[in-house]
Amino acid sequence: MLLGRSDENKGRLAWITGGSSGIGRALALHLARKGWRVAVSARSAEALEALAVDGKGRIFACPLDVTDAQAVRDSFVLLEQEHGPVELAVLAAGTYRRDGAFNFTIERARTMIEVNLFGTMNALEPVLAAMMERRRGHVAVMASVAGYNGLPGGATYGATKAALNNLCEAMRPEAERRNVAVTVINPGFVDTPLTEKNDFPMPFLISAQEAAEAIERGLADGRYEIVFPWKMRIVIRLLHALPAGFRFFLMRRLVRDPQDL
Q1: Which residues contact 51 (CB under 8 A, 6 or more apart)?
Q2: Sequential DSSP letters for 33-98
Q3: Is 127 helix (H, G, I), strand (E, B) or coil?
Q4: What are the Cα distances from residue 229, in Å, to 45, 211, 236, 250?
Q5: Measured by CB atoms within 10 angstroms of the end CB, which terminus of the chain is less buried, N or C?
Q6: Are 92 and 23 in contact (CB under 8 A)?
């Protein structure tokens, strides 16, 4: 099932997790302008209500903590009972904290794994089951180009995104047998509250609105993988193709040892 164009989308229901800010928020507004009814979920009820106001009646708030598996199941059932079948689910909830060999802790790692990986899986379970039963639907998972290569400062974050890439690749052929599309979204640097934490230059940085437009185009075209911006895609692909020894040589140049600061 592919996204339609213009009038074809009117009245159809999309669900976006992680929709209170960043790419999720921009995508919710973009889809609403394209005619979709959009349910948005995140922990911040206040931010979701503000987004619903901006959505002018086409966006409605569904506050939710994606790390609570039972709450996600219950919320999805209630969402479909009240608003009809979800035809597009964009699972975009995520968090990011820099970590690596200098500051690795299981507590920091567990937080990112619970939100980025298990939070996505908690939503994927009811969404995929419903779509597979109906033999119709499109689910998109927000990963990252950070999942292609291990990058200094992004150890656990990159690991969660690599896992999501693998998960989607494994599920897509099976889901297609039931007419359900699976897409993985791999953004580069996008100007969001998460990337505002970075204290280093971010090449090819784009706005959340540009990211939303790229996602909508990719979904409408039925792509398995949506990567943006295109310059970042080329750089990451080239880096991934290099021999390991040369990659590590380049990565060492990015390392900032706290003892040297």
Answers
A1: 19, 20, 25, 28, 29, 40, 59, 61
A2: HTT-EEEEE-S-HHHHHHHHHHTTTSEEE----TT-HHHHHHHHHHHHHHH---SEEEE-------
A3: helix
A4: 31, 8, 11, 22
A5: C
A6: yes
Cα–Cα distances (Å) from 30 to 87, 143, 190, 194, 199, in that order, read 16, 20, 16, 20, 29
Which of 96, 148, 157, 224 is an active site residue?
157
β-bridge partners, 182: 139
Rounded average pLDDT per 10-residue block, the chain, 261 residues: 59 94 94 96 94 92 96 97 97 94 95 98 98 98 92 93 98 97 94 71 83 96 93 82 88 76 55
Query: Among all chains, which residue has been given the structure tokens 């990058």?
Result: 151
Is residue 95 a contact partner of residue 116, using CB atoms and an 8 Å limit? Answer: yes
Backbone angles phi, psi at 137, to 5 degrees: 150, 170
The Cα–Cα gap between 192 and 21 comes to 8
Q: How far apart are CA 254 and CA 53, in angstroms?
A: 43
Strand-pair category, 37-41 with 13-17: parallel
Residue 250, amino acid: L
The CA distance from 137 to 115, in Å, is 24
Class of domain 6-260: alpha beta
Q: Classify the C-alpha dihedral 120-220-138-65 as positive or negative.
A: positive
The tokens for 74 are 């219950």
Beta strands in the chain (DSSP E): 13-17, 37-41, 59-61, 88-91, 137-142, 180-187, 190-191, 206-207, 225-228
